[in-house]
Amino acid sequence: MHGHHHPDGSNNPLTSPLGQQGVMRQFFRVWRSGLSLGERDLFGFILDCTVNWGKTSCRLTYRNIAQAGGSTETRARSFLKALENKGAITVTQFPGDPKGMLIEVNIDWEPAGKCQVKNSAAPAPKRKPLTTNTIDQALYHAYDDARSWPEKHRRETAQCIVAICSNDKLDVDNAILFAKNIAMAWPGFVMRNEAPKHPDAGFIRKHATGWLVQFRENYDLPPLKRDGVTPTQMRGGSGSTPTQTRGADPRSNEGAIIGEGQQEKKEQEKSKSATASRPADAPAPAKETAHPIRQ
């Protein structure tokens, strides 16, 4: 989730009352201003059925919606379609299912500006929304030990990745690729005793900045400009960047992570051996200045 879901800028999961309060605050302060009265009432009802229960989706019928809003099913269809077109929700239909359709809230929705050019010759294509369910499914299918990964923990991780990718302005396809890279590289982090057993939101958030910089470089994406900070300075944390070359075996990245640690250990042992073999009165060798290589 975006930092505005909490006053101090932290990202709280929807299972937390602070996370739920943050989404509702966003609804009252930002989202409702771009909606009509009917759309506003319907969106508030959907948020009450989802966010206030610690989840992002629910099953509803047009009759449920009409009864809750004191309206007709025809008007309910119209308002629901309007919210979907604006990117506030996604609707998955299940014809003939008495439980109705699946409605998912886009908790990272950013309404379009009020000043829009009317009757433009070439309208901008509709952007596919980045949702928690999308990233959750990507993590589940990419992670080898997904069955033992608690669903609640996995969805919190998915929410964290959605917030990170939204703030970094990654589109949904690259966000899915970024999530898959994390899931595939995770066994390497565990083997190096750097990370918890399963992908964890706190660990990902700690190393996200450096990972995103390396991800953009590896996939030829334009770097995201940040005020006064160079890409080298942005690579923080001790974790290796979970990225790979397109078309390569995902598990080859895991080997690179392990090999990097072994290489560092060999270099340290070689340095110690050279120091021990040098006479006590011998002058210390001159230090070589390494010039950075632009990748």
Helix share of residues? 40-55%
Cα gyration radius (Å): 24 Å
Q: H/E element string?
A: HHEHHEEHHHHHH
Instruction: Give the beta-strand count.
Output: 3
Low-confidence stretches: 114-121, 227-241, 243-262, 286-295
The number of domains: 2
Q: Helix segment count? A: 10
**How is the largest sheet built, in terms of strand order?**
1-3-2
Gap between N and C termini = 32 Å
The share of residues in extended strands comes to under 5%
How do the helices and strands line up, and which of them pair or pack?
Blueprint: H1 17-29, H2 37-49, E1 57-60, H3 62-69, H4 73-85, E2 89-92, E3 101-105, H5 132-142, H6 151-167, H7 172-191, H8 201-218, H9 231-234, H10 250-277
Helix pairs in contact: 2-4, 3-4, 5-6, 5-7, 6-7, 6-8, 7-10
Report on this structure.
It is a single chain. The chain is mainly alpha-helical. It has helices at 17-29, 37-49, 62-69, 73-85, 132-142, 151-167, 172-191, 201-218, 231-234, 250-277, and strands spanning 57-60, 89-92, 101-105. The chain has two domains: 3-105, Winged helix-like DNA-binding domain superfamily/Winged helix DNA-binding domain (Arc Repressor Mutant, subunit A, Orthogonal Bundle), CATH 1.10.10; 132-251. The protein is globular, with a radius of gyration of 24 Å. The two termini are 32 Å apart.
Question: Which features would summarize this protein structure in a list?
Answer:
single chain, 295 residues, mainly alpha, Arc Repressor Mutant, subunit A, 2 domains, three-stranded antiparallel sheet, 4% strand, disordered C terminus
Short description:
The protein has 295 residues and is mostly helical.
